[in-house]
């Protein structure tokens, strides 16, 4: 009888691989629009030399009062409401798949930003938030008293 090394998590790894394969191939809709359907819009964050830029897909917002943006302790929160109730009468509606209602998304930012000077714009269903990074002026080097 050959000896096989004991790997206690081998079965869990196999199960994780199977679940990844199952959701990646059998349900492509879960990968593309899943978050938006549950009221959690997709968000991309990238960094330039002087700022962080967040872009968020929230098509259907009609006025700026429907979007709230907060930055608190390096957490960006985007929330609001998409209201499409006046477009088509309910008795004439055959299929409704576009998101309607409240949405909310919070993400931790990869670097510290200043809440002063933040600019947000909304165009063609995409919200762009530009946040200036905190400069090194807030840092202070501490000398070690070495004996």
Automatic annotation (TrEMBL):
CS domain boundaries: 38-143
Coiled coil: none
Start and end residues of each SHSP domain: 34-147
Gene3D superfamilies attached to this UniProt entry: 2.60.40.790
InterPro entries: A-crystallin/Hsp20_dom, CS_dom, HSP20-like_chaperone, Small_HSP
Similarity comment: family membership: Belongs to the small heat shock protein (HSP20) family.
Protein name per UniProt: Heat-shock protein Hsp20
Species of origin: Effusibacillus lacus
